[in-house]
Amino acid sequence: MKKKFDWSVLLGAAFLMASSAIGPGFLTQTAAFTAKLGASFGFAILLSIIMDAIAQLNIWRVIAVADKPAQDIANDVIPGMGYLLSTLVFLGGLAFNIGNIAGAALGLNVLFGIDTAQGAVICALMAIGIFVYREAGKAMDLFAKCMGLLKITLALYIAWISKPPLAEAVIRAVNPAKFDFAAVLTIVGGTVGGYITFAGAHRLLEARQTGPENLKEINNGAITAIGIASLMRILLFMAALGVVAAGFHLDESNPAASVFKLAAGNVGYKIFGLVMWSAGISSVVGSAYTSISFIKSFHPVITQRHRAITITFISVATVIFLIIGKPVKTLIAVGAINGCILPLSLAAMLFAAYKKKIVHNYRQPVWLTISGAAVVIIMTWLSYGAIRSL
What processes does the entry annotate via GO biological process terms (predicted)? Predict the structure, then answer.
């Protein structure tokens, strides 16, 4: 008998994944690559959306059918692979969270003139408050939904104000004049790489919204998550393209802020502050939750004390930021690193889909396997090309 599916949790999981993706690095990457590639960046976005959807569907479905976290599945595929994957995801999540704290603090600085060090502490306490709350899962779902809708609404306004060349953007999305390995690798990594694609799937697992009988709903959740993140990427791209096409040059030290300020003046700059704060704070929550979910199953003590460990995770990222400052270039670099992690994590899920002791009687659609394998090959190739270009 099919168990009742909680659509509120599904939507919360979709927004958690999307909000994890739409962090400060996401804003910085989109603006920086639009300035570099112009309308041709649309091709990279289109390619990334297709690859993101394939990767997300494969990973969410296997986790739902196996009814266990990704690290345990990877260990069942090859002993020790889960520990390797967890280490990479955990360290990548920590590095991203330093940038997320930085972005949230910068947002408060723009909005209220608060010193970034003080802002970092305030934002860390806000994120920690969600995990202190007894109904942390529900609070996280609601928070992710609110922050996601806020970011999309504000980005839509700036995209409309900047008046981008829509015809050129459509043409270059299928016929690019330029191509950049690092651009595709970074934005795929920044959307579904590292910990990000597992954020929603592990949330569904925690809420017990899994099982082969719910695959239709899980498919919808996975596609919704990619759709939300992709919509935000397209709106930011359009906003940046309108500014660049008008002949303005973005400030390399903070390209995302330049887009908002050049498009709408001081009001735009304040909107940037609000978007950066919401992007940063929601990604702090998503990164902390998912990174800890990758080590929870390794020892009962971690499971029992996961809230305290999550709070410590956020605190450590905040302290590191206070020591080293805002790593703007690191936001782009970590996206590329996450892109390199994706082939490993996706390959593990593809192999797991054909192990009966993991997925039981589940039959993986052939088209998902073939397309998933293609994403693994392409991302491996892009990773190699990006590393060679360094």
Answer: iron ion transmembrane transport
Count CA atoms within 13 Å of residue 143 on its CB side.
23
Whether the CA torsion 275, 281, 285, 288 is positive or negative: it is positive
Task: Indicate the CATH number of 7-388 among 3.40.50.720, 2.80.10.50, 1.10.10.10, 1.20.1740.10.
Answer: 1.20.1740.10
Per-residue pLDDT of the chain (390 residues), as tens digits, is 455 667 778 888 888 888 777 888 788 888 989 999 999 999 989 988 998 899 999 999 999 999 999 999 999 999 999 999 998 888 888 888 888 898 898 889 889 999 888 999 999 999 998 888 767 667 777 887 888 888 889 889 999 999 999 999 999 999 999 888 778 777 877 777 777 888 888 888 888 888 888 898 889 888 998 898 889 889 999 999 999 999 988 888 788 889 999 999 999 999 999 998 988 888 888 889 888 988 887 888 888 888 899 999 999 999 988 887 655 555 555 556 666 788 888 999 999 999 999 999 999 999 999 999 999 998 888 777 666 665
User: Contact 105/328 with Cβ under 8 angstroms?
Assistant: no
What pTM, to 2 d.p., does this model score?
A: 0.85
- CA pair distance 234, 108, nearest whole angstrom: 25
Q: What type of residue is 368? A: L
CA distances from 114 to 60, 123, 142, 337 (A): 40, 11, 26, 31
Closest CA to 336 of 183, 136, 178: 183
Q: How far is 261 from 277, CA to CA, in rounded Å?
A: 16
Residues 6+ apart with CB under 8 A from 114: 105, 108, 122
Q: Which two three-digit tokens encode residue 329?
A: 């270039």
